[in-house]
Design brief:
The protein is of the alpha/beta class and about 250 residues long. The chain is built from 10 helices and 8 strands. The protein has an 8-stranded mixed beta sheet with strand order 3-2-1-4-5-6-7-8, with helices on both faces. About 45% of the residues are buried.
Length: about 250
């Protein structure tokens, strides 16, 4: 690392869980973030601040007034702008050394596969089951870690799917949920998505710095009404349509 990098990331380098080698891994990492809304906003901001070398942002929606309640990577002045471009500007202000790539169109499946293959790790910050199932399948095929977050009403959850052994996201959720409700339909309390998005960034950093296995099969559920966490260990599902046959 350069002297200015050691100074900037000094508080992380001092941690035995990161150290200089872990910070160098972060600086060399490429992370794909799908969705720059309530989850993707804090996740992207913390990853940029923590020194991830390259962030690829995929979102083709535009910033709307109702987004500003929780999507903190965007500002009032960004209304009407494509979210990927708005987020790119904010992240470059946070850390100019971070290479931020904005993909502001809807990726077709081949483009998604290419981007997942090019990344070291993928964050699923989408808000619907159809997108999550597709991203889970593509990440599993590409053997890339996938950190999936979700939040609705006063509830949040997060699960990391790792290659070579499972479980994957679809081990937990059946395909029939594809048309279930979203936060746009049901509402969500702003800090809840902040908590879950920040945890996605945390788990991504743990994976990049060499602590992935502690996350395998761990589903965390947060209830903001009671301020309680539930941790569930999820086994691989033998009949899972994504990872069941490959193990």
């Amino acid at each position: 690392m350069e002297p200015e990098q050691r100074q900037r990331y000094a508080r992380q380098v001092r941690l035995s869980a990161v150290g200089e080698s872990g910070q160098e891994r972060l600086l060399a990492a490429r992370v794909l973030i799908i969705g720059l809304g309530g989850l993707g906003s804090p996740a992207a901001m913390y990853l940029a601040a923590s020194g991830v070398g390259s962030l690829v942002l995929s979102d083709y929606d535009r910033v709307e007034p109702s987004n500003l309640q929780r999507q903190i990577v965007h500002r009032e002045a960004d209304l009407g702008e494509l979210k990927a471009s708005s987020a790119k500007r904010t992240l470059e202000e946070i850390n100019p050394a971070c290479d931020v790539i904005a993909l502001d169109w809807e990726l077709d499946e081949q483009e998604l596969q290419d981007q997942v293959h090019a990344a070291d790790l993928v964050l699923d910050c989408t808000d619907n089951f159809a997108s999550r199932f597709l991203l889970n399948r593509v990440a599993h095929t590409a053997a890339r870690p996938l950190v999936s977050g979700a939040a609705i009403r006063l509830e949040g959850q997060i699960m990391t799917s790792l290659p070579k052994g499972g479980p994957c996201y679809q081990c937990v959720y059946p395909a029939r949920l594809e048309h279930e409700e979203t936060c746009a339909m049901e509402g969500v309390l702003a800090p809840v998505v902040g908590v879950m998005g920040t945890l996605q960034a945390l788990q991504a950093i743990r994976i990049i710095t060499g602590h992935a296995e502690t996350l395998r099969g761990m589903l965390l559920i947060f209830d903001a009404e009671t301020m309680q966490w539930q941790q569930i260990r999820v086994p691989p599902r033998p009949d899972c349509p994504v990872c069941g046959n490959s193990g």
